Please model this.
Amino acid sequence: MTTAISRPRRPAQVADPDLPDAWAMARAQLRASAARTGIERDVVERLSHCEREFTLNFPVRMDDGTLHIFTGYRVQHSLARGPVKGGLRYAPTVAIDEVRALAMWMTWKCALVGLPFGGAKGGVRCDPHSLSDGERERLTRRFAAGLVPVIGPAVDIPAPDLGTGPQEMAWFMDTVSMHVGHAQPGVVTGKPVSVGGSEGRAEATGRGIALCTAWAADRLGIDLHRSRLVVQGFGNVGATAARLIHAQGATVIAVADAGGGIHREEGLDLVAVARHARIHGTVAGFPGTEPVGRNGILEVPCDVLVPAAVEGQITSANASRLSCRLVVEGANGPTTPEADEILLARGIPVVPDILCNSGGVVVSYFEWVQDLQQFFWNEAEVNARLGAIMRTAFEATWDRATTSGTTLREAALDLAISRVAETIRVRGLYP
Ligand code: NAD
Model:
């Protein structure tokens, strides 16, 4: 009998037909950064490709007795700086180019916060909310079993992402452990604490976003206590970020998920909204609020906007209509390069994804270290170390942007990519 944590059936993450090509966007960012920092062609060429790419077509027995073949990917972008790290995404939109882009961004993210990891990403094309707990477990276990030859604590350590969470990570860890013949908690992070997870991991990404919001607001002279906050995406990242930024004094006036959004200018009761979302599978329809579209929410006037859903949400089509003073990117790649230009011209700063959502991978690193040492830290210790690492990265990024006259995104990319390039240069070319 499964002890899976039950989930309400939620609206599927829907593919936006005009979603920009994330892989083209990620490679363009690399080329632009290399041109700014003078990285040589050979290194750029090596970083423009993902080192290893695995595609798995694997069978899963569905509850109705039929057999369904799912397609999953694991992409390891750069192994130069250490084992690779990155999440596993369950969504109908999962495609190889998206996974490549996300893997490349993980390389930069790990380098920016100084972790001894390269970047990876993976996913299975499916609608996790239409699967039963049993189907999700069988899918996860079969996918994990297929990945056994190419992952491991010294090679590649997956983690949760869109559509996955602690339960999937526990199944993943158990499956790999069965294959190697002993408990192997260090093969995956974001696990429940009872199977070697870290205190503070569940909240880490949202906590990092809240920290970056406070530091950026401070630098920009925005008083968080008088600020209105809007959050797109009400999952692990968005809901936690909303709660923790609210705890710093901001009023959360609008939130949205794939099922739609809600707006109440006087502020939302986040505990009640979360309860409503648990019961109904979406925040939409929460009593006493105005409905707002899941994309329209981005245009609700506010002080701080946190896109924390999926990539490609702030585009050339809507960037001129954003009505905020600061964008803090919770999601990976939510802003297209064209939108970046528009926001720059409008004087709206964007704290970039690879900086402000790095809290998840930082505490994943802590989890991996704790699993390898079998020596566990308390939550206060985890949060203090997280804050220290993120503060260093935030200050370095902000200072570089100020001194070099670039955007925060360009500064973060330049710092990160230069570090990876230096590692590749020093290691040289084998054979
Ligand atoms: P999640 O599955 O827990 O939540 C995603 C949320 O976004 C849900 O509320 C979903 O309904 C909503 N959503 C999906 N498509 C939407 C759309 N088109 N419009 C509005 N809302 C939509 O996922 P998560 O872990 O919170 O991840 C969110 C983002 O943060 C992703 O981009 C992910 O890559 C990134 N991220 C996650 C972590 C982590 O630790 N989980 C770390 C770093 C970055």
Notes: Residues 262 and 291 are 5 Å apart (CA to CA). The chain has two domains: 52-187, 199-371+382-431. Residues 199-371+382-431 form a domain with the Rossmann fold fold (CATH 3.40.50.720). The longest helix spans residues 379-404.
